[in-house]
Amino acid sequence: MSNILVDISGNHNNGTINGAISTKNGMAFDGVKSYIPIGSGGFGSLVNNGVFTVALRFYIDDFSSRRILFGDYNNIGAGESCYFEWSVAVDDFVFSVRTAGGANVAITTSFPQVAGWYDAILTWNGTNATIFIDAVNSGTNNDNPGTIENGTTLSIGRGGDFVGLYFNGQIVDFLVFSKVFTEQEIKQYHNQFVNPVIIEDFQNKPVGEFPIEWQKESGAFEIKENTSGNKYLECTINGVAKLLYKDTLLGTASIDYYDGATWTTYEDTLVNLISTHAWLSHDGQYLKFTLTNGDRIDNLIITNGIKQ
After folding, report:
1. Which end of the chain is more exposed for a tag (fewer CB within 10 A), N or C?
2. In this structure, are 105 and 80 located in the same domain?
3. Rounded Cα distance, 36 and 16, in Å
């Protein structure tokens, strides 16, 4: 088996596989010594020191120590141009782009530290270093605009030729573009990994009953049907209804919600999907609906949902 990771762009920035293992999902890194040096220079040389976008898909379940997913980090600053890491100092992902003026360090906000697959889009437009996790703008910084440095050695799975901070997980894509992705391109990249799953539309549920797949934590709920034949779940006594799911990523969700007067479609993250007196939350095992008497829900759609 070849130990060469081929650059599919045709620009011959191939990599040499050192200890990383090919899996059905991508390349697995052991967090101890596996990494892949890329090309013959630093990150800056890949993009001619200009604007860029990096797109990668990765699996992470170890948040216990600092890990560099890719870059030309060298622990001294000079000779660096770009790197992306999980940082225990801030308990978040960090994307650093260095210019002659210093580093632009973008940091995600309260990353949930839930094991799973994520995609990251990292952009630099000459002024702003920005992180998008699963197509959501998760952090930006513009402390030192300018032309990025050349860097020295670029690696996937650790920072350049720095021995240490090895990534523990899997990486599927490592794509570098000499342009800044538009919002539409960011969503297109994310959507190729996401198959929206209609979790519940209640149409096959008996009227007057509580769905057997659901659990009632408190209050009372029942299936009802309108004059058009559309079914929905209505809260008849204030309470919490929940649905068991496994491996549900904190992606986006959509739900039709009736507040006693109007049906509204809400689209947002799983936490605080509905911002009024009703809301949808996720605790790692359950999708939980906190509703008030008269509230109705229908057409629940969630990304990356896998039913238990």
Report:
1. N
2. yes
3. 5
